[in-house]
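Example for tutorial group B:
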């Protein structure tokens, strides 16, 4: 298991993303009743992500990871807390003020098949964010889309293919190209590798690492696979029952976990590894 390299986030730069006391609740009605109940997706979450770094968010299903990601991307509005991007609190801005800032944060979802419009061509899918932001002419948007296809390892000659014409790994590359179209500073990957086989996971991780180095991208990577996390993350935050219970650099978390839930997660990974080693002996 290769752990993320030890890093020191000194005062050389300020955080790109700072989440403070963020919470999200939903109000639901009881069936056949007027009574309302409040369901907390997550509460009192604080995170810090520095430019060019990768923060992994791990935890069990239902812990609130995806809801948190959607709130950070402002696909949903948080119920409480503060959300800062490059020092600016996004939650005090109105819709018009937020419009140009939405380009800075983009999401890549678990299933590209459901995230990509099957009726659009690859070129149209990648160029769509540019059209929404009213950037460039049609020919300029096409040129940008073809450039991004090449950058993520897709043949620009496939520009007129639809998502159904691509394999799973190729569709995820297409989703990455679309997310990069506006030149974001933060990419949120919501289990973006979990539907891929091991070979494609390795290839996409290599692509993401190359893109991060080339563009100083920051990643918030939601994953349930701690073995993958150990390969790509600088820091890890562990989420349990809607709260962050432990957050530290990757190598420190794997070397000296403190919370009982973190210890359980790591123990399960080590158990799986020991079984694999025994069977291969």
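The residue assignment follows.
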């Amino acid at each position: 298991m290769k752990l993320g390299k030890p890093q020191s986030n000194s005062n050389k730069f300020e955080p790109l993303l700072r989440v403070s006391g963020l919470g999200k609740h939903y109000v639901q009605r009881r069936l056949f009743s007027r009574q309302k109940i409040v369901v907390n997706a997550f509460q009192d979450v604080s995170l810090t992500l520095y430019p060019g770094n990768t923060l992994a968010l791990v935890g069990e299903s239902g812990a609130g990871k995806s809801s948190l990601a959607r709130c950070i991307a402002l696909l949903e509005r948080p119920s409480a807390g503060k959300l800062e991007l490059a020092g600016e609190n996004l939650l005090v801005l109105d819709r018009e003020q937020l419009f140009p800032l939405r380009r800075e944060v983009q999401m890549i979802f678990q299933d590209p098949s459901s995230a990509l419009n099957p009726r659009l061509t690859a070129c149209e899918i990648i160029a769509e964010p540019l059209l929404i932001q009213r950037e460039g002419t049609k020919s300029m948007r096409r040129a940008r889309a073809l450039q991004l296809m090449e950058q993520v390892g897709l043949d620009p000659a496939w520009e007129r293919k639809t998502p159904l014409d691509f394999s799973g790994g190729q569709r995820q590359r297409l989703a990455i190209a679309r997310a990069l179209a506006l030149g974001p500073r933060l990419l949120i990957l919501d289990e973006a590798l979990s539907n891929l086989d091991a070979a494609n996971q390795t290839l996409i991780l290599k692509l993401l690492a190359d893109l991060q180095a080339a563009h100083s991208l920051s990643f918030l990577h939601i994953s349930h696979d701690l073995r993958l996390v150990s390969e790509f993350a600088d820091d890890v935050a562990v989420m349990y029952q809607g709260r962050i219970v432990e957050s530290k650099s990757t190598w420190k978390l794997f070397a000296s976990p403190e919370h009982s839930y973190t210890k359980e997660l790591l123990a399960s990974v080590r158990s799986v590894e020991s079984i694999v080693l025994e069977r291969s002996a």
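The chain has one domain: 17-280. Compare this with the pattern of hydrophobic and polar residues in the output above.
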